[in-house]
Specification:
By secondary structure, the protein is an alpha/beta fold. The chain has eight helices and eight strands; from the N terminus they run H-E-H-E-H-E-E-H-E-H-E-H-E-H-E-H.
Length: about 220
């Protein structure tokens, strides 16, 4: 089932987003076993993303052949476990985290590729820079943290609201993304879209999607 789901999604995104850009599929592997993840990779997944540091480290040696993303909220005291092991940290959501990443990455003589997380819905339950401060924050981090390399933006849409309102939020993110990459050729990814809303996001400019249940089925959490 996993392989079939992966191939179906890859066929659907083959033509790119609404702007003709390639869409990168990131398999969101929270609660998934290494065998399940490797099955998805064998079916064509090139990028996998974990939400929790403990799961990331537990599975690291057993998952093969894909770029590693960290896509969940990252506590500063857990940063040390990701240094040198991630291809992209998608959840750079505050300056405190940037400080810790810089300190650890510099000590390891390593550069952390990151996406700036934006709280596009201004939700109290979500972290991230506000839409109003995101542009300046991106520029500040790019100019002052030499071991952090910003590659774009990440956001999550609110669960509530109409499709029209959600599409407007994606377009707002796309406008910010386009403004940033005018001066920064490394700004390549707008990561928006999960299993419930990825088509809407791709239709409005996202070029990276993070899918879990669409690929693996419903999650089964330990009792």
């Amino acid at each position: 089932m996993i392989a079939e789901n992966v191939r179906e999604i890859l066929r659907e995104i083959e033509g790119g987003n609404a702007l003709g850009e390639k869409i990168t599929l990131v398999a969101a592997t929270k609660t998934r076993s290494a065998d399940e993840i490797n099955e998805a990779i064998e079916a064509g997944v090139t990028d996998v993303g974990e939400n929790k540091v403990q799961e990331f480290t537990q599975k690291f040696d057993y998952v093969h052949g894909a770029r590693r993303h960290f896509i969940g909220h990252l506590q500063t005291n857990k940063v040390k476990y990701l240094i040198g092991k991630t291809d992209l940290i998608q959840s750079l959501d505050r300056f405190e985290l940037a400080d810790e990443l810089q300190k650890r990455a510099e000590k390891a003589d390593w550069t952390a590729d990151c996406l700036l997380e934006v709280n596009i819905g201004s939700e109290l339950s979500k972290s991230g820079f506000s839409p109003d401060e995101a542009f300046d924050a991106y520029k500040k981090i790019g100019a002052n943290f030499r071991n952090l390399r910003l590659r774009g933006l990440m956001a999550m849409l609110p669960l509530a609201g109409s499709d029209e309102e959600k599409a407007r939020l994606v377009r707002t993110m796309r406008e910010l993304f386009d403004a940033l990459r005018k001066d920064d050729p490394l700004c390549a990814y707008l990561s928006m879209g999960m299993s419930g809303d990825w088509r809407l996001c791709a239709a409005n400019g996202s070029n990276m999607i993070r899918l879990g249940t669409t690929l693996f089925g419903e999650r089964h959490y330990p009792a």
